[in-house]
Write a structure and sequence with these properties.
The complex is a heterodimer of chains A (14) and B (257). Chain A has 14 residues and is mostly beta strands. Chain A is built from no helices and 2 strands. Chain B is mainly beta and 257 residues long. Chain B has 4 helices and 20 strands. The chains are: A mainly beta (14), B mainly beta (257).
Chain lengths: 14, 257
């Protein structure tokens, strides 16, 4: 089963 | 001083419906340009981005930028006290620790005001770069809600696969497997009933049903929804909000281990 990625894998905090 | 007046407060009720399942609290950033909100859900898997332009309001004044930290359950209690046809005015002083919601009936015979305490929230903003998406799907928002609801009976994940022929939504689990294919509509009487696909490259991504279902709480805001996808980046689900702006949801894909 696929695992859920976190949004912060793609976008950085500003 | 901040003051925003909305002749039909049903829009704000719908906005609240659209965010309160994903977020417990959020900061409403008010400026001359309008009201903006950006917040991730607790698990940091999805993000809500709301933009309400000042020119959509019947009256709008914001002398100084103001960030209002709001408990959405409290705001829901207050908005439940408003009739759909009431005229809403939101007011706050500069640096205030509370905000006032005033509801006036159309005939102005009933006027209620509710004062709500603001809360301090840590502001966590994500920088989201401009992206050219490989596939942009526009479809009736009710159809998207129906598909998410139907497929969530079959599994925790939905695979969205977009080619120039159409878009396929699939789920599989203990019960079996389900596939729903939508082709681009050839010609429709009403623009809002159309399914259109702009595709540069085909894309297949997997997403959690639970979040997609939460996003569809925005269905009442717009007859159409737009899904933007590229390989290996979050999905964007966008609902336009009439003359005001939009609500966008970002969702990180599920990936194979």
């Amino acid at each position: 089963t696929p695992i859920q990625n976190d949004l912060q894998e793609y976008y950085t905090l500003v | 001083m901040f003051e925003a007046r909305l002749v039909q407060c049903s829009m704000l009720k719908k906005v609240l419906e659209a965010i309160k399942e994903l977020l417990n609290e959020a900061t409403f950033d008010c400026s001359d340009a309008g009201i903006q909100l950006q917040a991730m859900d607790n698990s940091h898997v999805s993000l809500v981005s709301l933009n309400l332009r000042s020119d959509g309001f019947d009256k709008y004044r914001c002398d100084r930028n103001l960030s209002m930290g709001i408990n959405l359950a409290s705001m829901t209690k207050i908005m439940k006290c408003a009739g759909n046809d009431d005229v809403l005015t939101i007011k706050a002083q500069d640096n205030a620790d509370n905000v006032m919601f005033m509801f006036e009936s159309q005939n102005q015979e009933k006027v209620s005001d509710y004062d709500m305490k603001l809360i301090n929230l840590d502001q966590e903003h994500l920088g989201i770069p401009e992206t050219d998406y490989s596939c942009i799907i526009k479809m009736p928002s009710g159809e998207f809600a129906r598909i998410c609801r139907d497929l969530s009976q079959f599994g925790e994940s939905v695979v969205i696969s977009c080619t120039k022929e159409g878009v396929k939504f699939s789920a599989a689990g203990d019960v079996g497997a389900a596939n729903i294919k939508l082709a681009q509509t050839a010609n429709v009487d009403k623009e809002e009933e159309a399914v259109t696909i702009e595709m540069q490259e085909p894309v297949t991504l997997t997403f959690a049903c639970r979040y997609l279902n939460s996003f569809t709480k925005a269905t009442a805001l717009s007859p159409q929804v737009q899904l933007s996808m590229s390989a290996d980046v979050p999905l964007v689900v966008e609902y336009k909000i009439g003359d005001f702006g939009h609500i966008r949801y970002y969702l990180a894909p599920k990936i194979e281990e």
